[in-house]
Specification:
Elements (H helix, E strand, L loop, with lengths): L7 E5 L4 H12 L3 E5 L13 H12 L3 E5 L6 H15 L4 E4 L14 H31 L6 E6 L2 H5 L5 H21 L4 E8 L11 H4 L15 H7 L10 E5 L2 E4 L20 H10 L12
Parallel strand pairs: 1-2, 1-4, 2-3, 4-5, 5-6, 6-7
Antiparallel strand pairs: 7-8
Length: 300
Amino acid sequence: MGICDGRVVIITGAGRGIGRAHALAFAAAGAKVVVNDVGASLAGEGADLSPAQETVNDIIAAGGQAIVNSDDVSDWDGAGNMIKQAVDHFGGLDTLVCNAGIVRDRMLVNMSVDEWDAVMKVHLRGTFCPVRHAIGYWREEHKAGRAREARIVTTSSGAGLFGSVSQANYSSAKAGIAAFTIVAAAELARYDVLANTIAPSARSRMTEEAFADMMKKPDSGFDKMAPENISPLVVWLGSSACTVSGRAFEIAGGELNLCDGWQHGVSFDKGARYEPEEITSVVADLLSTSPAPAAVYGAS
């Protein structure tokens, strides 16, 4: 019996890299897996279903159950079809893992509006659309007295939590996903839906070129940046064993960190309206008693 035995799981962007590792891990834990991937390039262009099919073939060869879904996560109707396919084929849906993403890295001074919009579409709209359709299904199941132990796992990033030079679009989208997830957790508890996000650090098409030295596979010993290191956390978050919601987890190799973000910091209350000239000293006092922010990735 695996930790996800019998659960139906959708994983977006599961044809390659971290998403593929998630799919294989969920299947090994007993889940029935919908492998979603349009097979686009790193920049979100083109389509190739062979990576998704290969993932499905590997799951079936190992004795698991899986099917391919080729819908665009950012397309409203396509996302709805993805949920419907899981329900029609496997009889329900228990876990949704939003992993799909692209990058269009550029310094702000050179970034185009198309490069901004493309990243927002895949990451933010591509998280909202599947989640919205999934919770519509779970809400109806709850009303019918068939509440499922539903789980949502979204994918943020260290770039979203701390920022990353040349990735203003990606960082903003990933920060949005983190905020989206804590709102989803607060709103969906009434339907027995738990939602959490992860900020993974692992080798993928997005990281192996941008962070070549960090992501390089070692000649021997533990491969800290192997994508398979991320999946145990995601499988747990997607299982009925998970009882937490609205939290963000950083994970790299064997290092697991519960993020301590979105907290009110040090404050000072004058009890009256400030004069602009007063702000200098108040802010100086606040800064002197507050921890320094985490450094933006890539900042010198």
